[in-house]
Amino acid sequence: MEAIKRMIKKMLDTMYPNYELQENTITPLKSGWAGSVYSFTIAVDKNNDKEKKDYILKIYSGTKSGVESVEKECQALIFLGKSGYPVPEYLGHDLSMSEGNNAFLVMERINGRMFWDVYAEVDSDQKKDMVKTFSRLLYELHKKDIGIAKMEYTETASMSLIDNELAEIKALLDHNQIEQLYPVYFWLQTNKQTVEDLSPAILHRDYHPWNVILNENQQPVVIDWVWGIGDYRFDLAWTLGLMERGGFDSFAAEALAAYTQLLGKEIKNLDYFKVLSTLRWLLNVSVSLISGDNLREGEGQAFRDFLQTPVSRACETFTQIMNTEILYPL
Hints:
Blueprint: H1 2-12, E1 19-29, E2 36-46, E3 49-59, H2 64-83, E4 90-94, E5 104-108, E6 112-114, H3 115-119, H4 124-142, H5 160-176, H6 182-191, E7 200-203, E8 212-215, E9 220-222, E10 228-231, H7 232-245, H8 249-263, H9 270-291, H10 300-322
Antiparallel strand pairs: 1-2, 2-3, 3-5, 4-5, 6-8, 7-10, 8-9
């Protein structure tokens, strides 16, 4: 706990001249498999009174990948927050990993409930409305001007939206020697010229109902940004695939229908992006198991056990779309 307090103090000492950390509020939160998350409250002097502020401390793995993850999430919180998109307010971050600390980020705590927890409790009509809200959030992200991310892009580079993804996939396959998945990569290379209407969008890259919080006013806020620039169908397919691998096929179908209605046109080549995003997901989790990067210490076997069914369903997706059986035992 002393290390946690040091991180908080290091960040807040530069932000507030007079504050009191309420140490009894420092609470570890249930999070994913990577990094650790704590909530805490401070009291700030304001007009002869104490104003309470709730924050989140997010600690990443002590690796190069962890540092890159901090940088990426901070970028998204800053430029999306300025654009009016619903994200937590960014406070600050530290990449130095000094005094034995890992890279970390401090941001606003959204007091509320996970989207999925609320969705699970409401009636069927409310569920339909919530799915529409969920899809609208993703659609509105994809409609944002990519210029707010301050990344260069030209129309002549449209195929790079796929080529860049495939290059990263090939590097991961080669470095980790995952031979069973090369046929999927070759299928993607062979079929990439069939993809129509490529256009750049800001992507979340891990959008799902557990990365949306409904605040105290029941307004959604999107968290856990991996983000990048790519074709919107990659993000959509990632979300649909994740829900299908979790056994939530009806939610995926309704989310796709709602997104399609917002888009106002047929979504072409979605199967291609399902294969592309599923392969990238499968490589991400495989690399975490192989290297331990972005995985909390001691969680390896539990993570492997958790992945058995989703990985099996990922292979079923490949087999169904590619008409080639793909087997990948973890």
